[in-house]
C-alpha cells in the first residue's frame, strides 16, 4: 500500500469506527430509555438541598473551543458504548424496576473549581432527554467539600447508566480547571496556556477545562498555527531559514494564521530579530524555551528569560516554556513574558473528587467518616 492510499484510508477507518460505536451506543441508549417508558413510582431519597436555589442554569458559561473536525457527541457516544458493551448495564437491568424514578445529588468531596456542567447536561440528554438536571452553580464556580451543587431527576436506570461517564468527564475537567485557576492567578500578569499534551481523543474537553479555569488555549492542533519547533529548526538549518520557508509557504497558500518560533539560546533570539528587521515576516510569537534555570536550592534563575524579553521589547508576543511549576510560575510571570505554557495543566491532572448519590444522608455520613465532606 502506498503512503498516499494509507493517509486516505486511516481517516476513513477512524470515521467508520466512530460511526459504528455511535450506532451501538445509540441502540443501547434506546433500549435503556425504553425501560422507563412507563413510570409510576417516585423515589426522592435526597432530603438535603444544596446551598442556593436549584435552577436550570444556562450552563454554557465558557464556550467549547472550536475545531473543524471534532465531534463531541461522538466522543460521548464512545464513552457510553465503552461502558455498555454489547449487553448494557446488566446490574441495573437485574435490580432496577423499569418504572422507578429517583432524584440523585452531586456532592463535592474536595474544594475546587467545578467544570463539566455543560458537558454533563449533554451526556444526560444523550442517554435520556427526559432527565431533568438542575444546578446551584455554574462552570467556573468554586465548590467546597460536602457541598451539594446539582441534581438529576428521572428514570433510575438511565441516571445510573450515565453516572460514571458524567463523573469521569466532570472529575477530570474540574481537576484541570482547579489547577489552571491556581496557576493563572500565580502567573499574572502573564497568561497561562496549556499545550497539546492532552489525553488522546479528549483534547477539546481538556482545553475547555483550561478555559473554565481561567487559562487560555495554545494551538488546538497542527492545523491552526505554524509552530516552528527545535526539530524544524535543526532540519531547516537555523531559525532564519525556517522562518523564510514559512513566509514563502503562507504567501503561496494565501494563509493568514499565527506563527510561533521556538528559541533555545540568546543567539537564536537575535537571529529571529535580525531576520524580522530585514524582511516583512509573518511571525507573531517567540517561544523562549528552557530559559528558566533550576537552582540547587529549589529556586530558579530567570535572568536569561528576562534578558530575552527585554531584547524582544514588545515587538512580538513572548512565551516562556520549560521548568514551569506552581513554585516557579510567579517568578516567571514577573519577567514580562506574555504567556507561560505548561503541559502539566493537562498531562498530570489530579481529578477532583465528585460523586452522584441518591441517598445523600448516608453518602454524607460515610464521606464525613473518611474526611471527604
TrEMBL record:
Name a single GO biological process: pyridine nucleotide biosynthetic process
Annotated GO MF terms: nicotinate-nucleotide diphosphorylase (carboxylating) activity
Name the Gene3D superfamilies on file. Aldolase class I (3.20.20.70), Quinolinate phosphoribosyl transferase, N-terminal domain (3.90.1170.20)
Q: Which UniProt keywords apply?
A: Glycosyltransferase, Pyridine nucleotide biosynthesis, Transferase
One Pfam entry for this protein is QRPTase_N
Record EC number: 2.4.2.19
Give all residue intervals belonging to the Quinolinate phosphoribosyl transferase C-terminal domain.
Answer: 176-357
> What InterPro entries does the record tag this protein with?
Aldolase_TIM (IPR013785), NadC (IPR004393), NadC/ModD (IPR027277), Nicotinate_pribotase-like_C (IPR036068), Quinolinate_PRibosylTase_N_sf (IPR037128), Quinolinate_PRibosylTrfase_C (IPR002638), Quinolinate_PRibosylTrfase_N (IPR022412)
Q: What class of enzyme is it?
A: transferase
Pathway given for this chain reads: Cofactor biosynthesis; NAD(+) biosynthesis; nicotinate D-ribonucleotide from quinolinate: step 1/1
Residue span, Quinolinate phosphoribosyl transferase N-terminal domain? 89-174
**Family of the protein in this entry:** Belongs to the NadC/ModD family.
Q: What NCBIfam families does this protein map onto?
A: nadC
PANTHER family from the UniProt entry: NICOTINATE-NUCLEOTIDE PYROPHOSPHORYLASE [CARBOXYLATING]
This chain belongs to which protein, by name?
A: nicotinate-nucleotide diphosphorylase (carboxylating)
Q: Which organism is it from?
A: Dendrobium thyrsiflorum (Pinecone-like raceme dendrobium)
Amino acid at each position: 500500500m502506498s503512503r498516499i492510499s494509507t493517509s486516505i484510508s486511516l481517516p476513513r477507518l477512524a470515521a467508520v469506527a466512530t460511526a459504528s460505536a455511535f450506532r451501538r451506543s445509540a441502540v443501547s441508549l434506546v433500549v435503556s430509555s425504553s425501560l422507563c417508558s412507563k413510570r409510576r413510582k417516585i423515589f426522592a431519597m435526597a432530603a438535603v438541598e444544596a446551598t442556593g436555589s436549584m435552577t436550570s442554569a444556562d450552563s454554557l458559561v465558557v464556550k467549547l473551543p472550536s475545531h473543524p473536525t471534532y465531534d463531541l457527541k461522538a466522543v460521548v457516544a464512545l464513552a457510553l458504548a465503552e461502558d455498555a458493551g454489547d449487553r448494557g448495564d446488566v446490574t441495573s437491568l437485574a435490580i432496577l424496576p423499569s418504572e422507578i424514578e429517583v432524584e440523585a445529588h452531586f456532592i463535592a468531596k474536595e474544594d475546587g473549581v467545578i467544570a463539566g456542567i455543560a458537558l454533563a447536561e449533554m451526556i444526560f440528554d444523550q442517554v435520556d432527554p427526559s432527565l431533568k438536571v438542575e444546578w446551584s452553580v455554574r462552570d467556573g464556580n468554586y465548590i467546597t467539600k460536602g457541598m451539594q451543587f446539582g441534581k438529576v431527576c428521572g428514570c433510575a436506570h438511565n441516571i445510573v447508566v450515565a453516572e460514571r461517564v458524567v463523573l469521569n468527564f466532570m472529575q477530570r475537567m474540574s481537576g484541570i480547571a482547579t489547577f489552571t485557576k491556581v496557576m493563572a492567578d500565580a502567573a499574572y500578569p502573564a497568561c497561562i496556556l496549556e499545550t497539546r499534551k492532552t489525553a488522546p481523543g479528549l483534547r477539546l474537553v481538556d482545553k475547555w477545562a483550561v478555559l473554565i479555569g481561567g487559562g487560555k488555549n495554545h494551538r488546538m492542533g497542527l492545523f491552526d498555527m505554524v509552530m516552528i519547533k527545535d526539530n524544524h529548526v535543526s532540519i531547516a538549518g537555523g531559525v532564519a531559514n525556517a522562518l523564510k520557508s514559512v513566509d514563502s509557504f503562507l504567501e503561496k497558500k494565501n494563509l493568514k494564521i499565527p506563527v510561533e518560533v521556538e528559541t533555545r539560546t540568546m543567539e537564536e533570539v537575535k537571529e529571529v530579530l535580525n531576520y524580522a528587521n530585514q524582511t516583512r515576516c509573518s511571525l507573531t510569537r517567540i517561544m523562549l524555551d528552557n530559559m528558566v534555570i533550576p537552582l540547587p536550592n529549589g529556586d530558579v534563575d530567570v535572568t536569561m528569560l528576562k534578558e530575552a524579553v527585554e531584547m524582544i521589547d514588545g515587538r512580538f508576543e513572548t512565551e516562556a516554556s520549560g521548568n514551569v511549576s506552581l513554585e516557579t510560575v510567579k517568578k516567571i510571570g514577573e519577567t514580562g513574558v506574555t504567556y507561560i505554557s505548561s503541559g502539566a495543566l493537562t498531562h498530570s491532572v489530579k481529578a477532583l473528587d465528585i460523586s452522584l448519590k441518591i441517598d445523600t444522608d448516608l453518602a454524607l455520613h460515610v464521606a464525613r467518616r473518611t474526611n471527604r465532606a
